[in-house]
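>> received
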Amino acid sequence: LTSKVTGVLPTANGGYGSGIMVSAIDAASTTIQSTITNYANGNITITVPAAGKIIIDANVVLLIHHATAVDEAYTLLIGTSPSDNYGSGPYWWYYGYVPSSAVVGSNIFQTCAVKGFITAPAAGTYTLYLNGWMSSGQDAGDQFYFSGMTATFYR
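>> returned
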């Protein structure tokens, strides 16, 4: 399931045309590795008419398989490439955690709100990526489960 929608936002003074928003949803499963992992189809592309800022919001559901009694820790971010492990910087990263005391063998759904931004130096098309990694407790059952992303352009 992949969907892309484009719309035009109203401006602060009630006119139209200076704000652009696109959205994308995806339900592919991708195993989260202990190294930077791009969510398959977890990207969003926006075409902007001029220089400005692009703000990205992603609602993400992870399925964390708690295989052993160790802490499960993960980091999610919006990157400018599928291998970007920095994005907008650590203050914009989403840090998640499942404690070692969780029931071993359980599958735990985690809902995450990930944000990011880039400066668009000129008119053009920009693609942003939902990336992440497991810093503790990684196994093959740790999955990006689905996501909904929006990118909004502001001059």
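>> The beta strands are 2-10, 16-26, 30-31, 37-48, 52-66, 72-79, 94-98, 106-120, 124-136, 143-154.
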